Amino acid sequence: MRRSxxxxxxxxxxxxxxxxxxxxxxxxxxxxxVKAAPxxxxxxxxxxxxxxxxxxxRVGNDIHSDYDSAMxxxxxxxxxxxxxxxxxxxxxxxNVTAAHIDLGIAYARMGDLDRAEASLVRALELNPRHPIxxxxxxxxxxxxxxxxxxxxxxxxxxxxxxxxxxxxRNLAILCDLYLADRSCAITNYEAYLRSAPDDPEVVKWLAxxxxxxxx
Length: 215
Prior knowledge:
This protein has nine helices and three strands; from the N terminus they run E-E-E-H-H-H-H-H-H-H-H-H. By secondary structure, the chain is mainly α. The chain is elongated, with a radius of gyration of 20 Å.
């Protein structure tokens, strides 16, 4: 039985547009030590469709346009065109975490797992506490046969965001179908259903697993 682990839509990124034109007259300032720019503020939000990321960054209008174009391409499943637009975003604004995650998701949907993994690893270099990046990386690792790494990625996603029930579902599927860890599968299916009780597939999978376990 094939079970789909990928329930997430491509991420949303809140981009605050700003003027990309230089000031009309440069102003000389005393030299000072250069400090690393703070990481953009990232929030994980739950809605009726699942979870999304809101990342507040200031970018030029051209980057805003490229990101919006990428999202439209992805909605139409035109992944190559969407990736081309997103690459422009990551080149112009390399520290935007969500763009790297979206690239990882798009590459994974095209079957390019190496590029998907590289994009998600880059996202986690920018923000190691990003639960969606850990969850998406876990799905890529599972497809690459890196089962222990996938489990660690799902566990990390849940450590960072215990309410992130899609990661819980993915962990349960991994334990059920790939690791033969019945206890882990039952525990995580049950936890998932407490958050998503109307998922008929998981209700069926859990009942079947419990029957086989003699519960």
